[in-house]
Amino acid sequence: MAIVSPLNSNSDGLFHAFTDNASEDTVAKKSVKLRKCTLISWAIIILLVSIVFITTIALLLVWNAKCQAKITAIEKRDTYCDLGVCNNKFRVPPLIVISLDGFRSSYLSQNITPAIQRLISCGTHSKYLLPSFPSKTFPNHYTIATGLYPAWSGIVDNQFYDPNFNEFFKKNVTRSGWFLGEPIWSTVKRAGLKSGVYFWPGSEGIVLDNLPTYWKTYNFTVPFTQRIDSAIEWLKLPEGERPSLVQIYFEQPDVAGHSGGPESEEVRTAMILMDGMINYLTKKLIREGLMGCVNLILLSDHGMQKIVKSRSVVTGNNLSSKFNDMFFPGVVARIQVNENGNKDVDEMISNMACKRGTDYLIYKKDLVPIRFHYAGSARIGDVIFKGRPEVCVFLTDQQKNDYKLLGDHGYDNRIVSMRAIFVAIGPDIAEKREIDDFQNIELYNLFAYLLRIDAAPNNGTNGTLFSVLRNPPPIPETISSEPSLQCTKLSSLTKCNTSLDCSRITDVYRNCSQVMQSSVGFTEDFIGEHCNLPFCDALIHFNQESQQTVMVEGILRKSTWRLEPKKTCMTYFDEIPSIHSCETARSENFTSISLFANIGLRFPFGYYLSSYGDLLFFSGPIYDKDGDGVRDEIDIRESHDFISTAQPSHIFFVLMRCRNGQLIAANNLCKDIISLPYILPIHGENLNCLKPSEYLNDNTVRLRDIELLTGTQFFTDRNIWSAAEAIQLRTSLPEITY
């Protein structure tokens, strides 16, 4: 029997058969897997599409909801500010002015006054309102009514003595002569219109032989709602009897601030009460169809400061033992010398001076900082004590013990706690606008403009508050159209000495291809005949009529300002008369200081130059012998042989820099500019022995103050600053130093 090998037993066929069967199974299995994968893939795709679809739908729903929310918010906002209902006809919208006594601007941050906030959101408001000094009730309400500083309006304090009347002022006084100037209700009468005034301080006093058309004798017990109701009734009178101006005064939250202090629960309660009164007023105006007919202004006269009784100052022990003069205590205290009193004021206050301003600052009447405009009135007195925040000044311990207030006001009008509020709304008022801060002397002009009547002369600057208006007119320009002439023809510059060591002369002086052009103008009422002397980086403004320098304008350079004149090769004009030339400076042994600097100004100049680099500066003399903040008129000068012999009473200087840090170059000023103006008294010592920085800070002013004292005007280039921008820069009071 033969043995058959497996290899010869059709092994290949078995192999192939096995392989074929295996392949079929594999294919089947793969097919199943493929179908499963396909199903899974489709499931995943469907799932992803579903997720995308659902997500898209969700996002669309969210987006739509947000859009609806925005639309709803806008609709609500429009309803929120829809206060323009007017069902009455007025030729000119009546003006309503509401005063909330002692409403400090920071009170608004407590968010408990929704009715006031509604007016703020929908109308125009300022960042804050600056009161006038002293920041007290009667002076500031009458300043608001007249546009005059307290020293000009006659109401220099809540209590004072008039040596001409030989009487003390009382708040309920009605005698003619106490209230000066022209209050807005008298201006209204002069224009043939009528006014209704409810308790406004000063409205009961006879001014210009008249009173408001409708007025009330002050009675603090009259409910606030009754005051509002009476004002509404006035507005509902027939046209021939209806007042064009309505003013209402409320004592709160001032009363609460005095009794409990500015951070007390009493003040919060009073704020809620007064917000309720504003809500009552607006709702009643809306109900009567008047809200859209009237221009409504809500303001306050000053803020409120916490009092710390332990810091009180009692002056009696430091004054002369024979002191028998009048002393008016308070956060601003005053001494008024009697006819038979101590006439030597320096001796009287010698022990009170040089206290470095820890608790108070003391001024003689002719050395009060110009920015207060608190001079020129016999009612002010001879010595002024300006308490620091929290401090009250008394004559005796008994006065101190009798003083029970936890809050008070009257302090420096620039401190934060004295800031007041200003809000306006109406058909003539811009909507949803915030404007910069301003001082309350500007309000009278706004009142007159809104009433379409001519304002009386006042201390405000016409146009300052045109930014409040919905359709403001052009701001009036007061610059003379005649260009300034050069005092001499343009001459070559010659060095003032014979020193051969001119190695440190700068390229500015060596390669002076053009002279500096002026960046200030002169007003139409400038006294005299103006001309200028141009240099490479400075300009002298000169009055040919009085033969006096008006102003020096130039650039202070960080690199050269401290160098001695002979080392910088200072220059002069050959054609200037010899009395003004540099002849004496040509001597090698002569020592002098720069033509454009002063040893007293080296501290601020050095500090600002080191901090900010080159600065534009202005400096010059001021003649203000009577201390009223307005330059002496030519007839006053001539009556004292002023032109030939008068000496300046103050010196001013202004430093300017660009906010973005770019250097200020001649003829290339920047738009966004920061200025720091000062007016310093020339005669008289620093009674308070303040540090230079503190002394300068106390004597900062508005640029407008310098303009009024020199007949000049800043920021006149309309290619750089609009009239609106310029007037804001000129009238703002610096808060602090740089």
UniProtKB/TrEMBL annotation:
GO cellular component, one term: striated muscle dense body
Gene3D superfamilies given in the database record: 3.30.1360.180, Alkaline Phosphatase, subunit A, Extracellular Endonuclease, subunit A
UniProt KW Hydrolase keyword: yes
Transmembrane segments: 39-63
Any one GO molecular function term: hydrolase activity
Matches recorded under SUPFAM superfamilies: Alkaline phosphatase-like (SSF53649)
Keywords, ordered alphabetically: Glycoprotein, Hydrolase, Membrane, Transmembrane, Transmembrane helix
Keyword Transmembrane attributed: yes
Protein name: NUC domain-containing protein
Coiled-coil boundaries: none
Organism in which the protein naturally occurs: Thelazia callipaeda
Stored Pfam families: Phosphodiest
